[in-house]
Write a structure and sequence with these properties.
The protein is an alpha/beta fold. The chain contains 11 helices and 10 strands. The radius of gyration is 21 Å and the shape is globular. It binds glyoxylic acid (GLV) (2 copies). The site of one glyoxylic acid has 6 residues, from loops.
Length: 306
């Protein structure tokens, strides 16, 4: 970007506060944002009428007000595609860590509590040959589902739309949400956060799941009613959960981090060197193209380009 433009970079390895963001965008022709930056009408207006693009350094864009941007003729972009494998693999890491109690048993070793091998110590759940449920068979969900072949799992999925071709390719069976909840030994969420997917998993849904089930969320925190999840984990309504994302990041719901049947990590599903570089390249490329008057690679409000 520096080849073509004057670039000012956030000096911190953290998100800007709302106030810092409102100040930093002023007078810019382009802004690259993090998934924690809410870009609404106020931010767009603070940037000013010369601003052409907000490029999210994330695939999710629930932090963007697309309508407000489109109304102002501002392009919005995300980083789809390059993080599918990293995110799907991370969901698997959470699944395996939860099933085999990796975090809990590692804490035990580090605390110097290990006094010797024991037949029933840290008994977990088999993964092989179980039923894997995938909520959302999109770019990331389908990568996640594909990797289940290594564990000889039965894969079931649900989505707003059925995808028979993909079903065939990866050997997944379409089911309704109720069946997904009832039959999954592992249920992983790969849905976008939308008004209709908010609290996709709540108290009622948790109650329909198997007592031995494990819930994985590396999508968006508000897909799960986190308070209801804490209760379900505490009362062993389900067996465990592996979470990369939370309803009110960086805050965790009260009681969550005290539970041993949950693995919690800080929203790092796409955090690999290769993937973060690729995301950066897409965001930068989108800025350069847009400021040249060309269509960016991954526009999420293409109506502004017409
Ligand atoms: C990460 O959460 C992303 O949306 O890229
Ligand atoms: C475990 O280490 C075994 O030998 O069964």
């Amino acid at each position: 970007m520096r080849q073509f433009h004057d670039v000012e970079v956030n000096p911190h390895d953290r998100a800007l506060t709302r106030e810092e963001l409102l100040h930093a965008v002023r007078g810019r022709h382009a802004v690259i944002t993090l998934l924690t930056d809410t870009v609404d009408g106020a931010v767009l207006d603070a940037a000013g009428p010369q601003c052409r693009i907000f490029a999210n350094y994330a695939v999710g864009f629930n932090n963007f007000d697309l309508k407000a941007a489109t109304a102002r003729g501002v392009v919005m972009t995300n980083t789809p595609g390059v993080l599918d494998d990293a995110t799907a693999t991370h969901a698997w890491a959470l699944l395996l860590a939860t099933a085999r109690r990796i975090s809990e048993s590692e804490r035990y070793v580090r605390a110097d509590k290990w006094k010797g091998w024991a037949p029933m110590a840290f008994i977990g759940q088999d993964v092989d040959n179980k039923t894997l449920g995938v909520a959302g068979l999109g770019r990331i969900g389908s990568k996640f589902a594909r990797k289940a072949a290594a564990f000889d799992m039965k894969v079931i999925y649900t989505d707003a739309q059925r995808n028979p071709e993909l079903e065939q390719q990866i050997g997944a069976t379409y089911v309704d949400k109720e069946t997904l909840l009832r039959e999954s030994d592992f249920l992983s969420l790969h849905l976008p956060l939308l008004p209709e997917t908010h609290h996709y998993i709540g108290r009622a849904e948790l109650a329909q799941m198997k007592r031995t089930a494990i819930l994985i969320n590396a999508a968006r925190g508000p897909l799960v009613d986190e308070k209801a999840l804490v209760e379900a984990l505490r009362e062993q309504v389900i067996w465990g959960a592996g979470l990369d994302v939370f309803e009110d990041e960086p805050q965790l719901a009260a009681g969550l981090s005290e539970l041993n049947n949950v693995v919690v990590v800080p929203h790092i599903a796409s955090a690999t060197i290769e993937t973060r570089l690729a995301m950066g390249r897409i965001a930068a490329g989108n800025v350069i193209s847009t400021l040249r008057g060309e269509a960016p690679q991954t526009c999420i409000n293409p109506e502004v380009l017409r």
